[in-house]
Write a structure and sequence with these properties.
The chain has about 450 residues and is of the alpha+beta class. It folds into three domains: about 140 residues, Alpha-Beta Complex (Adenine-n6-DNA-methyltransferase TaqI, Chain A, domain 2); about 110 residues, Helix Hairpins, CATH 1.10.287; about 150 residues, Adenine-n6-DNA-methyltransferase TaqI, Chain A, domain 2 (Alpha-Beta Complex). About 35% of the residues lie in helices and about 20% in strands. The protein is built from eleven helices and 25 strands. The strands form nine sheets. A five-stranded mixed beta sheet has the order 15-23-19-21-17. A four-stranded antiparallel beta sheet has the order 4-10-7-8. Helix 5 packs antiparallel against helix 11.
């Protein structure tokens, strides 16, 4: 877009905005709307229905202003006064503050909105898409950061959104900018989606690689035998199948993070650390622990230990595992985790860690996870779970192979994620330039 600038600019008079094209004007959002700063309905979860109007909450709106696939519904009669109209703009005023959404009836169907969202109904001189794109600009982020800092409570109320100052050209020019951004944003989103799919395929390949290695081995010519277990099928002839308790010690930690009974605070490893890290590293929160010194000593991590999530609000978080690859100083297994230490004669800790990620093996724990508001995995279920066990030397070879190959795949995934982030940054920069007049797109063919 180099060279596409307006002939003349003027100071906007707003510090965070800077210069705008000479013929643009500054308007407060409320003066561009027929109705502004309308708060949504406060409906409890037990009012949700299987059909009716979709009830939009902050959590239903993504960072880029789209709706997540599944939502909740309310009877039409319960939310009639909160039904959205074509072009309405929503802003989140609490939680993920500033998240925005433009309603399109044909795309979204009947929708109402919840109390933590604020509604604006654009008037005849405001193009809804132009206003929506402004909310995706760096300038809006800058304004929002200033408002949040000056706010005495943890939200941005409707009045503050209503007083947002927008740089505005004519309606015709707003339309031209919106059409241009629709095309460019869609093109960039398409590239991001292709990269997201590439990541999914690599993750599937990673999963298949692990599953095959820990259930079939690395030798494609190995003689196979029936394991006698339906979900496992055939395994190499010289392998055995053992319960986890026969190849490792499994213990549930009782170390929590509040008042201290021991002599000093400890580094506490919790389920969040496991969920986000395949390998546990020393960068773990320093906390006081509710535990005796004996318990702290018992659950202090050593190289080769495996940690497994044993309870969570999400079913898919059960039996997520992590491996202690390095010597750690004073890091203790936390309350929500199972601590697994391999029997050095029978098994290799890194092999057990990889096996927890394999299809079939991992499915055992999802089947056993019980609960209503929170899922839990019993010690009995872990102890008696079945693992294919090759000879120790072969376990080490499988672990080394998977470490090398998964690192290579993870490296590819990281590069794709970096390129996706670059595209997102470019998208935001392009939107910011267009809605503030830094580039003139009126003559750009679409």
């Amino acid at each position: 877009m180099k060279g596409l600038t307006y002939p003349k600019y003027k100071m906007s008079g707003i510090e965070w905005l800077g210069e705008i094209p000479e013929h643009w004007e500054i308007w407060r959002l409320k003066h561009l709307c027929k109705r502004s700063a309308l708060y949504g309905a406060n409906e409890p979860a037990d009012s949700y229905a299987s059909e009716g109007a979709r009830f939009l909450r902050t959590t239903d709106i993504t960072d880029d202003g789209k709706l997540i696939g599944e939502g909740v519904y309310l009877p039409m009669e319960a939310v009639r006064e909160y039904l959205l109209e074509e072009g309405d703009i929503l802003f989140s005023r609490s939680g993920t503050i500033g998240r925005s959404f433009q309603y399109r009836k044909e795309t979204h169907g009947p929708c109402a909105y919840a109390g933590y969202l604020v509604r604006f109904v654009p008037g005849p001189i405001l193009n809804p898409s132009f206003a929506f794109y402004f909310s995706k600009s760096k300038l809006f982020e800058r304004w929002l950061a200033g408002v949040v800092i000056s706010s005495t409570i943890g939200n941005v109320n409707g009045k503050k959104f209503a007083n947002l100052e927008l740089p505005c050209p004519s309606f015709k020019e707003q339309h031209a900018i919106s059409v241009f951004l629709n095309r460019e944003a869609s093109r960039i989103d398409g590239l991001i989606e292709k990269k997201r799919r590439q990541i999914e395929l690599l993750q599937e390949k990673r999963q298949a690689l692990i599953s095959h290695a820990v259930t079939k081995g690395l030798n494609p010519n190995a003689q196979m035998k029936n394991s006698g277990i339906e979900w496992l099928g055939e395994v190499p002839e010289h392998w055995v199948v053992r319960k986890l308790k026969h190849i490792a010690a499994v213990n549930f930690s009782s170390v929590d993070k509040h008042s201290v009974e021991g002599e000093k605070p400890v580094h506490l490893c919790n389920y969040v650390d496991v969920y986000y890290n395949d390998y546990i590293t020393p960068d773990i929160a320093f906390m006081e622990a509710t535990a005796t010194q004996e318990e702290i000593w018992r659950f202090t991590l050593k190289r080769g230990d495996v940690l497994v999530t044993k309870d969570s609000e999400e079913w898919n978080d059960i039996a997520v595992s992590a491996y202690v690859a390095d010597e750690l100083q004073g890091v203790v297994c936390g309350y929500h985790l199972a601590h697994i230490r391999a029997n050095p004669v029978a098994s290799c800790g890194e092999y057990i860690f990889r096996a927890f990620s394999a299809r079939g093996i991992n499915d055992q724990f999802r089947v056993e996870a019980t609960g209503i508001t929170r899922y839990g995995l019993s010690k009995y279920a872990l102890d008696n779970s079945l693992f294919p066990v090759p000879p120790f030397k072969e376990q080490r070879a499988i672990a080394a192979f998977l470490d090398r190959e998964t690192s290579r795949i993870d490296g590819l995934i990281n590069k794709i994620e970096e390129s996706m982030e670059t595209l997102r940054e470019y998208r935001t920069a392009l939107i910011s330039a267009a809605v503030t007049g830094k580039i003139d797109v009126r003559g750009v063919k679409v």
